[in-house]
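Input.
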Amino acid sequence: MGGFAGLLWLGPCSDFLCKIFLNQNISPVELYGILSYMWVAPSLIMSIYIGTELVDAKLVNAKFVYEHPTFILIAIFLLSILVINGFGSMRRSFQTTGTIRKRFRLMAITFFLFVLVGTLDALLLPEPILFISRMGMIVCAFLLYLALKP
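Output.
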C-alpha cells in the first residue's frame, strides 16, 4: 500500500524533473494525471484489503505462555514504563504549572492506559473484548500525540 501511495507522486516528480532538466513542464499535460492518478485504485484496493484484515476478529493470538522468557521480559518492560514514564510524568506534573502540567498529566494518563491495555492484550483471548484493548492502543497513540504536539 505504501508503495502504491508513493507512486502517486510519480506525476509531480516527473513534472519537477522535466522542469529542472528541460526547462518546461511535462508534455502533454494529461500525462501528469495519468502518472499520478492511475495509482489511486491499486492504493485504495490495498488499503481496503489491509483494513479488512485489521478489523477481522481473527487477528493474532497475543496471549503469552506465562513461563516463557518473552512473558517475563514484556512484564518487566511494562512495569518499567509504568514506573519510569507513568509515575515520572505524574511527579513532574505536580512540580510544574500551566500548560506543561496539563501535558505531563496527559502523558501520565497515556502511560497508565498503555500498561493497562497492554496487559489486557496479553492476557485476553481473541474475543470481542480484545478489540477494545487494541482500540485502547490507538487511543494511547492519540493521547501521546496531544501531550507532545508543539
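Residues 2-55 form one domain.
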